[in-house]
């Protein structure tokens, strides 16, 4: 009986079939009980050895069942651990994206590149010459004051063999790249220059000591102010919508003549006056003008032969207007809850 049971238990793969076997052998109407039932019919000496045998059998059977049960439980636990539920929804990996400022810089440069402009880059650590003199910004101009510009520690000019023109600073605008672009790409040329600029302003909702600009310059024979207007209007319509109107206000920059500041009609209220445009209906977006003869001279070009226009705009300002961002600091805090909205 024990050997037969051992064989049957051995091939058992499921708890249910093991339970059935247990009932067959150890149950109330099982094999062992049946043998016990025969004991009263036996003679006194037979009873003793028979009874001992049945007890032995019962103990052995119980041991076999317990051992098998433990084995089955362990196998089931192992299977559960390796089990993959392919019906569960997957975990979506977080995908990265460009920072809003990079997106807007790309939109601006993209719009101008479709108008024929190439992208040009200039250094952030710029010479004082390129940032000021070459752009016709006089020595006593307030923006040259140490409080308006980050000067880099001057090195010993006399020993290095460089002239005083090599004194460096963090560029306060992207306009010095006009000079570099004119030298690198002889006219006729048209480039936009995206990049960082630095001014030691106290940080608040609308000021940052570092921000981004996109500069533009186009030079050819016979370029006129109307070319500047046409290019900027095409840009504004692409950037802010086809109904956008533009307003040129006379202004002054040392490196353009004549100069203008440009407003676009408020896209939020269509020029009716709202909180975005402080009820004026207009939003200032850039400065521009016709390239000053002094700038051509600085770049080694014949100022009688060439005409050009230039413009410069703040990327943060465009992004704040277009995407309704009300604090410039949000761009630089890198709070993921802000960044992932764009
Ligand atoms: N550089 C000027 C500024 O930072 C903007 C500008 C660029 C104006 C080119 C005219 C022409 O304010």
TrEMBL record:
Any one biological process term the GO annotation gives: phenylalanyl-tRNA aminoacylation
Cofactor(s) named in the record: Mg(2+)
Metal-binding recorded as keyword: yes
Alphabetic keyword roster: Aminoacyl-tRNA synthetase, ATP-binding, Cytoplasm, Ligase, Magnesium, Metal-binding, Nucleotide-binding, Protein biosynthesis
Stored InterPro entries: aa-tRNA-synth_II, aa-tRNA-synth_II/BPL/LPL, Phe-tRNA-synth_IIc_asu, Phe-tRNA_ligase_II_N, Phe_tRNA_ligase_alpha1_bac, Phenylalanyl-tRNA_Synthase, tRNA-bd_arm
Aminoacyl-transfer RNA synthetases class-II family profile domain segment(s): 112-333
Record GO terms (molecular function): ATP binding; magnesium ion binding; phenylalanine-tRNA ligase activity; tRNA binding
Top-level EC class: ligase
Catalytic activity: tRNA(Phe) + L-phenylalanine + ATP = L-phenylalanyl-tRNA(Phe) + AMP + diphosphate + H(+)
Claim: Protein biosynthesis is one of the keywords in the record: yes
Cellular component annotations (GO), alphabetically ordered: cytoplasm
UniProt-annotated location(s): Cytoplasm
EC numbers, comma separated: 6.1.1.20
Residues bound to Mg(2+): 257
Cofactor: how and how many bound: Binds 2 magnesium ions per tetramer.
Subunit (UniProt): Tetramer of two alpha and two beta subunits.
Similarity field: Belongs to the class-II aminoacyl-tRNA synthetase family. Phe-tRNA synthetase alpha subunit type 1 subfamily.
Record's protein name: Phenylalanine--tRNA ligase alpha subunit
Taxonomic source organism: Velamenicoccus archaeovorus
